Amino acid sequence: MQNEQKARNMLSELFKTIEMPEDLDSITEKELSHLLAWFKEIPPHADFWKRVSHLVQLAFPAPERLAGSLGRQVHLFRYVVSSQQADYVRRNFIGQTDVEKLARYLSLNPSVSYSLRESDRLHHKKSQLGKGDYPIGYGCGNFKLLIGFHSEFIINSSGEFQTILGNSSYKLPLNGIVNGASFNYADRNGQDHKRLDVHNFRYDPIWRRKLLLKENYSAPLNESGKFSYFTRYSYYAFDNQSARERSSRLKREFRRKVKRPRPICRLLGFRY
Predict the structure, then answer these.
(1) Which 3 state secondary structure label does DSSP give 87?
(2) Cα–Cα dist 196/170, whole Å
């Protein structure tokens, strides 16, 4: 209990220092830029983000969910962090598109562990409970990349980062609002991820909640049938490919863009 209260006090002090709003219902470009500036030079793989995540885990231990004004701020901070991390990559690495800059970042930092294995099913929402259209900016699909599980990037088929909030140029693409990235406080997939990251829609900005509810945006299901993430005859299929197949193709294309030194054991023909 003592550690829990100490962690909550530290989070409160952090949010007080950066002037984190209690809601993002009417956040302006100037206010968002002010928030992003606090973390301008912190890369997505920095230990700082692990420490923030650990504080949240201590402040809201299992089986507690995020609650109260602090819980709301903690939830909304995930969107601020994802915008900052997209900005960091955009500003510091060369490339014609966001995806090229992300590949460059990972190529120049070979010690940074990244993963394309986690499911991005929840980032393929369509309107009208799946029977309508994908949001503008979705193109032919989205894919997800994680760094240390905490830092999350959602990239569309045009190679553009998709964030729920704006960024330094204050763009708010519809696909970003609906399917965009959000920082994860949990260390891995599981119950902690659900309670700290996934199941807190009630704290979302009112404009996002209204949009998703009004248009009935819904993600494909983790099963077979007309609403499946996996099948080519699903409402979520496009160009005779399931949502998962399109995501997998985009991930394969991305892997080829990341140029890293090959481990010496592979050069010598050994497998590990």
Answers:
(1) helix
(2) 27
Number of neighbouring beta carbons within 10 Å of residue 195: 18
- Secondary structure letter of residue 253 according to DSSP: H
- Dump pLDDT digits (tens) for 228-266: 999 999 999 999 999 999 999 999 999 999 999 876 655
What is the CA angle 170-163-242, rounded to 5? 140
Sequence-separated contacts (24+) of 2-6 with Cβ below 8 Å? 3/58, 4/58, 4/59, 4/60, 4/61, 6/58
Please report, for residues 179, 194, 269, the alpha-carbon distance to residue 208 in angstroms, rounded to integers and kept in the order given: 11, 19, 51
The pTM score is: 0.94
Tokens of 181: 């990235």
Cα–Cα nearest to 73, from 164, 152, 11: 11
Instruction: Judge contact between 206 and 212, C-beta under 8 A.
Output: no
* Mean pLDDT in residue range 106-134: 98
CB 153 within 8 A of CB 99: no
Spatial separation of the C-alpha atoms in residues 192 and 76, rounded to whole Å: 17
Residue tagged 């909304």 (tokens)? 76
